[in-house]
Design brief:
Blueprint: E1 2-6, H1 10-16, E2 25-26, E3 35-36, E4 51-53, E5 64-67, E6 71-77, E7 86-90, H2 94-100, E8 102-104, E9 108-110
Parallel strand pairs: 1-7, 4-6
Antiparallel strand pairs: 1-8, 2-3, 4-7, 5-6, 5-9
Bound molecules: zinc ion.
Length: about 110
């Protein structure tokens, strides 16, 4: 599969997806009132390491995948350009996502 990477920043959001980032929310608890950004995937879970965007007509939500160099992840997201044998793995930092680039890898899929 072709494996690309993304994070929750505005840049990754704008160049390939509808928009992963929800409206700013206000934290509760000790940081009450502070603005924070949240990344929410298309199936409503929080974007975090291990979240994979895939073509859900082939790989439905919840499909487990092992990506060499990334580890285990689960499909919780989609993307406009994510079709067929192409997936997108989530990284917390934009630098890590850019460093990943685009790779052709053997991905293990657990159905
Ligand atoms: Zn980014």
């Amino acid at each position: 599969m072709t494996v690309t990477a993304y994070c929750a920043c505005r840049e990754c959001c704008e160049w390939k997806r509808q928009c992963l980032i929800g409206p700013p929310v206000y934290a509760t608890g000790p940081h009450r009132g502070a603005r924070k950004k949240v990344g929410i995937t298309s199936d409503g879970t929080r974007a975090k390491k291990g979240v994979i965007a895939a073509d859900i007509t082939r790989y439905p939500y919840g499909t487990r995948m092992h990506v060499p160099g990334y580890g285990w992840g689960e499909v919780h997201d989609t993307g406009r350009l994510i079709k067929g044998d192409r997936i997108d793995v989530f990284f917390k930092s934009h630098r890590d996502a850019v460093a990943w680039g685009k790779q052709r890898l053997w991905v293990t899929v657990i159905r």
